[in-house]
Amino acid sequence: MSTRHIVIETRLGPITLVAKGETIAGLYFRHHVRRPSQETFGPEVADSADPLLNEAARQLRHYLAGRRREFDLPLAAEGDAFQHAVWDIVKSIQCGDTTTYGRIAEQVGDRGLAQRVGQAVGANPLCVFVPCHRVLGSNGSLTGYAGGLKRKQALLGLEEPPEARASRLF
Q: Which of 5, 86, 107, 112 could form a disulfide with 41 if both were Cys (CB 3.0 to 4.6 A apart)?
């Protein structure tokens, strides 16, 4: 099967899910910073007619409803070797945890690569499925997110451990 897509409505706004063959190749918000042109998504199909996209939509909805903490989907992002090294590290960040660009740079071999890591994280075509929202600035600040900082904050809030939520004063 060729490239195709669906658009689903979520609490974060419309999300486009793109499949190529038997893999999920993209997850994009409407005003995604690095959203490819619509033509690259292939035709829009009914999610009920496409088992893979239907399952991706189901898992995403369950995650956004707080009923799922990880995804079990065949993913295939297009990128270079460095980007894939970064995305593999990002995929390993557990729900409710965060890390920094600098820590990922250390894991790929050189803390001086933090800016390049940031570029790779920003180019992630599978945000949420490859949870780049879990990557923060060196001081723990919310920095760049291709889907927008409000969405990043919402996703982190959704994943916040109950004990941390209970200890907040506000």
A: 5
